[in-house]
Design the sequence.
């Protein structure tokens, strides 16, 4: 069974986990997810939500067979 698309979740924002797919797939889109909160009482709003790339949608590259 062959698949044309993959959803790949990564533990951190490093793309090292995507390295095995570099030659066979291309990135279509990236989904950002919660990473952490920062608090700065000198700004409004005082809380900022920080996101990082966590899920990648990959499409298989066409190859000559």
Sequence:
């Amino acid at each position: 069974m062959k698949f044309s698309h993959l959803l790949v979740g990564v533990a951190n924002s490093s793309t090292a986990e995507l390295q095995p797919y570099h030659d066979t797939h291309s990135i279509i889109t990236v989904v950002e997810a919660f990473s952490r909160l920062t608090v700065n009482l000198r700004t409004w709003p005082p809380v900022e939500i920080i996101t990082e790339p966590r899920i990648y949608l990959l499409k298989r590259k066409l190859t000559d067979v």
Remarks:
- The radius of gyration is 17 Å.
- Strands lie at 5-9, 25-39, 47-60.
- The mean pLDDT is 88.
